[in-house]
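Sample pair:
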Amino acid sequence: MARRTDDFRGLTQPSRLRLLAEIQAAPGLLLRELAERTGLHENTVRDHLVVLEAEGLVTHRTRHGGTRGRPPESYFPVRRADANPEAARRVEQATRHGDLLRRMNAGAAHAGLDDDALHQVDTLYEHLDDSGFEPELDEVALEIDLTPCPFLPIADGDQELVCRVHERLIDDTLSQVPGPVRLTLLEPRLTHELCRVHLGLATAASSESDADAASES
């Protein structure tokens, strides 16, 4: 299947996966700190970060400390769509596409999901599709089968890295759209290439807690 021009090509490189994993684990790291953690040259890290930011996966903030020279930049995973223009575009595109498909397929079962929940699922589905999977969504069971794994060559060498990054990306993608849908479990390698995403609906209390956490990131 031909890849679209907005696929997440950046994630196919192990070095970028490692960088994203470090940013997810410790949001706010500086470029030099990322270089130290990954063993990559700062110029290489900078080039990779440009790609990850252009794809809507990370964002940066300038850290003003009152020192001379150019202030350093801290890097964060994108947990709010308005933190990154490309992430915002993807959310808007996914929700518009999902609404169109539902109008064309009126009467299909959606497990009683409201519009916010449906838009979260829309955004996650397109994120997974853009990542190179061919997701199969069961909206009643709130499960998504992922196959084939486009990151299999990397996963064969470091499955823990690949699964950890994608689990957090699923969390972050869902958090970019206000709603109750949360990741409850990512089952890796039910077969050599098949993984399964299990989703659930958060309570009002947990939704408020998640919203507070997102506003601080």
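The domain at 113-216 is CATH 3.30.70 (Alpha-Beta Plaits).
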